[in-house]
Amino acid sequence: MSKETKNGKNGGGISSEVKLTSQQLKEALIKEALENEIPIEKKERHMIQYVFTENEMKDKSKELSRACTDKQKIEAAKKSAMSSFKYQLDGKDAEIGSLSNDIQTGYCMKDVECECKMFFDRGQKEYWYEGVLYATERLTGSDHQLKLNLEKEEAEKNKDNSKQADASGVIQLEETED
If you compute the radius of gyration of the chain from its CA atoms, what whole number of angstroms results? Predict the structure, then answer.
């Protein structure tokens, strides 16, 4: 006699007769991920090439225009107090250079929080931002250590609960600060 599961299928998912704590469910999902090579996701900061939207390009153009106007005003005042304005002009030149470069290239490098998917079977991790894959890298020693630590925790728990990952087939890990 088969049991009906919460997801409405027989033979998979979480039995409606079994009540698990969130910790037990997390442990079961991690075990399932490790056994079936399901990618493990975590939040991680990574530098990506962020392409500006049309509105951002317009905003940068307005900023460039304001910076040029500000520079002209500063240069006019420079005649009366040359040395006191040198610092301000250097700052505007740097701002203009940065904005001009942003407009010319259409992108900048940003440190943003990405979805990091680790594929231990391929030895790779992928960095996703707003649904777009931005980078693929080889797994590091720290990444492999994460897997070993998860396997060790699972072995210590020694729970034999066969559970399914969420509908996407990906295990979500929440990082905690020590």
Answer: 26
